[in-house]
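User: Could you check the structure of this?
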Amino acid sequence: MQVHLIDGTFELFRCFFGAPRAQTSDGREVGAVRGLLRTMLAQLNQPDCTHVAVAFDRVIESFRNDLFEGYKTGAGLEVGLLEQFPIAEQAMRSLGLVVWPMVRFEADDALATGAVRYGASADRVVLCSPDKDLAQCVRGDRIVLYDRMRDRELDETGVQAKYGVPPGSIPDWLALVGDPADGIPGIPRWGTKSSATLLCRYHHIEDIPDDPAEWDVKVRGAAALAEQLRVHRGEAELYRTLATLCVDVPLPQTLEQLAWRGADRELLSDLCARIEYERFLERVPRFSTAS
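Assistant: Sure, the predicted structure tokens are below.
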């Protein structure tokens, strides 16, 4: 049994910027939701897609904004995108999918929690997202990261090859190199190569010696790197906290409750009428017996 845990926020963003825009007769933008319905149905049509949950950021801000003023916010996002988030959640529920709407936590936290919880009993967990934060959740080839857009899967060996560090060091790596998408600035002078080299040897920021003479790996500009880390250790530890995903989000569903049994005909019919996309109903291969 495989469990597919899907980053709904990313999928909605992708559809908003990649799918054709569409408006209802009263002027509401619904193109992203229509695109989301199509792409999720394509995922459900895959024979190994039997147990599914979709996580959304109901608001962009999270508890991390309380920890760091520069962390990402929803400022500057187009209204036409933000207004489709509630409809997107409803659309996924109408397809018969479990939806995890996050407020205090982020969608990635829900996916990380699901990976830990369901990874204990499922044969495989597939985290459907290109977000490098989630690489920290990868375990062997049983919990993997899958970029649906590029049809590219990363197991633990793939994470090491792509980022230069094992999954357990991904939060430290992001803290050092930064993550502009999340508003994490990183530490001055620390690039991807130097960070990977040192983390491969020491694994975590606190284990990197202050004195570069004690480093038993060669890194270009070691003295300057060591000085910047010495000065900014406090920030580096904070950034790692920001980059570390929570695995204790209160998700109520059992593994069996993630089983996809078909779309809810009544809910989907109402949803499609509201977004004026009735022809989508003809594409749905299965409806739940309850509907």
